[in-house]
Amino acid sequence: MQNGLSKRDVEVGLLVEGLLKFRLQLDWLTQQEKDHQAALGTQSENIACSVADESNAVNSGDPIDSSNSSAEDGVRQSLVRLRDQIRQVSAELHSWKDELSRYGDLEKELSEQDGKCLHEFLSVYLTETPVSSVFRKMIELAADWRLRFGMGHEFQTALLSQANVVASTCIAIAGYKNTSDVAFDLCILDEASKATATEALVPLSRSKRWVLVGDLKQLPPFQDEALRSSEIREKFNISPDDLGETLFSHLLSSVSDGAKFPLRTQYRMVPEIGNLVSQCFYPGLLETATVDADKALAAFLGKPVVWRSTSRLANRSQIPRGESLTNPCECDLVRQELRSLNGFAEAHGQKYKVCILTPYGGQLNALRRMLEPEMHKWEELDLDINTVDAYQGREADIAILSLVRSDRGKRLGFLKEPERLNVALSRGKFGLIIIGDGDYLRAGEAPNPFVPVIGHIRNTSAECLWMEIN
User: Fold this and answer.
1) pTM (two decimals)
2) Collapsed DSSP state (helix, strand, coil) of residue 351
3) Phi, psi for 429 (deg, rounded to 5)
4) Which of the residues 52, 67, 279, 305 has an alpha carbon 20 to 30 A from that of 295?
């Protein structure tokens, strides 16, 4: 021990496994504590292994020096208690796993949920209330059904052939056996502008009549990166227009006017958000139906549309992450917004569905890492963190948008595509909070969809609020 503590940097000890090693480590830690020095004790495996080594040595009758200090005894007792707690928790986990295994796929489904969802499940499942009793019976009934009848393709096929209304993705409808002869009288294809021709034809080919609903001013189908190369397009005689054309756009340009009908009234957003989207992307043609506003929320935010600009912050810049980008400053500002929103919701007895959107996968991962440790505290917020592209077709009470881009140049990357910005700004029903470097985005390379958006927000003070964060 004296040899080890006398070294300033490193001491390598070759020790026999068992009590001697454990005792010597305890002596080192105890002496450091007496000398008022900070010490860190680590090992490559679970701490319970060393505790078990010591316990086995004690139980086998090996002699122990009775002159140990009280501090050493306290450390040993704490470690033994920790070992017992680990064993108890492990036994309980095995017990729960055995019970959940009775319920078929429920164990797998629960393992894929986040902590908040699991907490809600257990709060109902473990309590002794009439609701929890019914809930457990329903789970047992579902498990018994799956055990007796199964939920395989044969069952799904039989159900599909008898159903009057079926909801499905384009591709999933073709995934069931023996359904090729199932014909539908009508197929309604939503988000048709985002479906490739091959995707759209899967359900349409099984139907007698078609109704396609889409918006060419929102995101088109995903394009493989290779097809963006001019050399590859020339090799296969593919024009840029060919890449952008969908079955929806083709039909829109070729069918008679009697088969086309414009939908100009939106029912999702409050007028302030609807007006922003209408003026910047639909030349004022989009009208807003009567939507009940959340006046308390609007007063709390300042306006239903808020841009919090980071242009004056020294740490506002983007950071490259592989092939993507992150912005730690904006991550922190998003967290502050959520803390504030949850406090407001608690004070007013409200619950809000909130989507946190960003164009970049790197920022998506950074937001999740920062926010997940606190998400269980925000009980009044139903949070969804996602990319803009993945959130098309969905909505939330409040949308928070982290734009990420902030650099010395003027590059906007794919933020210069107005369809992506249109989707991003039109997800919130009652509130839209935009976080980004306003000066940088307004001065970005042309074509720049942020120019009309920033102009509208700054010039329409009755509906929108522009804030410079200092």
Assistant:
1) 0.66
2) coil
3) -85, -45
4) 279
